[in-house]
Amino acid sequence: MLVTLTQGKHLLIHGPASFTIQKGVVEILKALIHQSSKGFLVPKGRVLALKAIEDCLITVNIGEGGKVEEREKAFPEQWDQVIDELSRQKGTVVVIGDVDSGKTTFCTMLLNSALRKGLRAAFINEDPGQADILIPTTIGATILESPTIYLSQLKPIASFFIGKTTPTGVADRVILGLAKLRSEVIDEADLIVVNTSGWIKGEKAKELKLATVAVLEADRIVFLKKDSELNHILRGLQKSYHDDRKVYTIKALEGAKIRSREERRFLRESSYNKYFSEAKKRILNLDDLDISYGMLGSGQRLDEKDLATISMLLNSNVVYAEENYDSLLIVIGKDSKLNKDAISNVRNAFGKSTVKVVKEGDERGLLIGLLSRGKLQGVGVLRKIDYVNRKIEIITPYEGEVTAIEFGCLRLNDEFKEVKQYVHVPI
User: Fold this and answer.
1) The domain 2-71 belongs to what CATH superfamily?
2) Residues 16, 42: contact at Cβ < 8 Å?
3) Phi, psi (5° rounding) for residue 96?
4) What's the rounded Cα separation, in Å, for the pair 273 and 275?
5) CA-CA to 104 of 20 to 30 Å: which in 252, 259, 384, 409?
6) What is the architecture, at CATH level 2, of domain 270-292+363-421?
7) Is the peptide bond before 397 cis (omega within 30 degrees of 0)?
8) Which UniProt keywords apply (predicted)?
9) In what order do the strands lie in the sheet with 47-52?
10) From CA 376, how far away is CA 398, in angstroms rounded?
11) Tens digit of pLDDT for each residue in 18-68?
């Protein structure tokens, strides 16, 4: 399909699709794209808006479910004004909004605009459900060298493992990660743009947003509002932000594609498949690793006598157990049956407030963060834990040193499809 786009008009391309600029210059998210033989892809579930800077000829190939539409305007009028103002100033901008409000689009436009004005720009993704940097279950930071259309194509300079695709229940990890990411880019960038998650409902969500603004020492906060959904967060900032700090309240992106839960999962799973496409098997020694989150590795391994006692109390085959001051982790054979009422017998016999029982093999598919010298280097998928010989089998594209691992709460199957997300680390 050959499309003629006159100067000043917008063309929205809904993926799956691809396009090539045959003649003229277009602006895509504030990045200038000139006539070129290079083609651009619009993945399924994505939409790109092209603005003709001069009369253009564009070749568009549409896949199943894709479409094109011409518009006079693609973005709210306020956006250009606010982006122009923000991209002329140094500091930190935090963008807050509901899901499908246009946060990623706004951040991309702001970053590209800043680069065109000569500022050094950094991006921090605070949403572990998106794959803007690395893969879902992580947050990350990057420095932009040139304008971009897709933030997901940028190479991270630092990442932090959250372990879930939502901040719910792991807000402490998110805040710690933001502090670390900020320290990585604060001296390298004039402008830091932060995209937050779409988790906005409830007091816990409000607390996370306020903590995000505080830990990043944000100069300016942008609220992308559809209606009144952000008022409870906004009221927590309006009084305290004045003088050299400013709060912007502007319209969310109208007509933004509302992604279904299935579409969001598809995008996440596409990211897992891409990341693990060249993964290799690795065997790590648990005794050589620091282990964060979950109970495994935090206690003292029990001897055969204690294992026999627990086996009798549970009437199950216990292959491994460890205890610390107030808790007990028990691993039973994969074919063992568990009488949950019997757990209280173990709790009373060992005087522990918490007793966790897991089955051997249940760890398969769990995502883990791989660290070296305190920094996330890659992500792996658990394949097997040999509790007796203290070995852990994973697959990962990362081939370097691993000195610590962090257990996540998300399980994938062998095709990297999401199977289950736990409230807490299951082992």
Assistant:
1) Clp1, DNA binding domain (2.60.120.1030)
2) yes
3) -120, 135
4) 6
5) 409
6) Beta Barrel (2.40)
7) no
8) ATP-binding, Kinase, Nucleotide-binding, Transferase
9) 31-34, 25-28, 47-52, 10-14, 67-71
10) 11
11) 999 999 999 999 999 998 878 999 988 789 999 999 999 999 999 999 999
> What would the pLDDT profile of 63-116 be if each residue is shown by its tens digit?
999 999 998 889 998 999 999 999 999 999 999 999 989 999 999 999 999 999
Q: Please work out, in degrees rounded to the nearest 5, the angle formed at the alpha carbon of residue 175 by the alpha carbons of 174 and 177.
A: 65
The DSSP element (H or E) to which 325 belongs, if any, is none
In angstroms, the CA 5 to CA 165 distance is 39
Q: Name the burial class of residue 242, with classes exposed (0-12), middle (13-18) and buried (19+) by CB atoms within 10 angstroms of its CB.
A: exposed
- Domain boundary assignment for the chain: 2-71, 77-258, 270-292+363-421, 315-359
* CA–CA separation, 134 and 137 (whole Å): 9
Residue whose structure tokens are 């305007």 = 73
> Distance (Å, rounded) from C-alpha 103 to C-alpha 225?
10
CA dihedral (99, 205, 267, 218) positive or negative: positive
Cα gap 63→67, rounded to integer Å: 8
The token pair at 266 is: 């598809």
CB 100 within 8 A of CB 226: no
Q: What is the CATH architecture assignment of 77-258?
A: 3-Layer(aba) Sandwich (3.40)
pLDDT per position as a tens digit, 154-191? 899 999 999 999 999 999 999 999 999 999 999 999 99
Is the pTM higher than 0.85? The answer reads: yes
Structure tokens at 114: 């800043």
Q: Decide if 218 contacts 92 (C-beta within 8 A).
A: yes
CB 162 within 8 A of CB 136: no
Q: In DSSP terms, which residues pair with 10 in a beta bridge? A: 51, 71
Q: Could you count the other beta carbons within 10 Å of the beta carbon of residue 388?
A: 11
